[in-house]
Fold:
Amino acid sequence: MSKLTKRMNLIHKKINLKKQFSIEDAIINLKTLSTVKFNETIDVAINLSIDTKKSDQNIRGNVFLPHGTGKYVRVAVFADSIEAKQAKIEGAEFVGMEDLAKRITDGEKNFDVVIATLSAMKIVSKLGPILGPKGLMPNPKLGTVTNNVKETIKKIKNGQINYRNDKNGIIHTSIGKINFNNTMIKENLICLLTMLKKNRPLSLKNNFFKKICISSTMGVAINITKDCMTFLN
Structure:
């Protein structure tokens, strides 16, 4: 086990990480323990009791967080004609078809979300080996394969996030910034958990949520499982 830094050692002395906290107390602790000079991101890790080997138990989707994430989201759009014009008006950082595909193949990666119209998917599908492993491949279930480019960009720019479990059944995503007020962070978290609860696999017999922790970029993970179970049940 690696030796703790001086800053992390102080954090560990100030908080009992074996304890489970209420959402409110966890947020207060994250803010109190934040000593870095930049606006940290608030992340959540949600461990689900799913079997990722069963396709019907894998979780993916999107949710519109009421207060956004505080992050600037860079969007790449595969579209032409009217949809391409709309994408540029709505602030998409990259818009194109074959030319955009070539930029990505050549190494362009300065974007967070990829949207494609239905007709553009014949081009985008060839980028699967590049976009797929990064979770950037447009998907109809996530709303990123659409001809309604204008509204999709608006939602993404204003707080819609995509989520999916990893191979261990854990969902990692961001729910705000450390400078958000406490109510905003809590409401974003509850919004995400509520959406996940709605997507609980029908074949799952065990409790859906196993462990829920929130953390800041440079902070520690604080366990809020018990408090969330009260809310989710």
Notes: The first helix runs from residue 6 to 14. The chain has two domains: 19-68+161-232, 75-157.
